[in-house]
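Protein record
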Amino acid sequence: MDIKLIKTEKEYQKALKRMEVIFDARPKTKEGDELEILGFLIEKYEDEHYHIEAPDPIEAIKFRMEQMGYKQKDLANIIGYKGRVSEILSRKRKLTLEMVRKLHEKLNIPLESLIQSY
């Protein structure tokens, strides 16, 4: 087990290939420990080099609605009138702080996504 920090794309690709080979390793074995450490190193490299921006609030709401099979009337039960929901989803009205709180609480949308400017 020759594990070191991943600093280049080439090392990253090599680590991914090794991870594929040992993916089914049992915990508390030499390969299991290697898999766990490799996972941390890969995650660190990805966090530094492949940062993914949070979606804008409206896209986050639409995505969660789709996931949950919600319609605009379902969202109206959370944040207010159906007309208001339509204005928000068409970007004619901004989310209020109270709406952000309710969307986070009821739909479990991350606050980081809901508070971004759009």
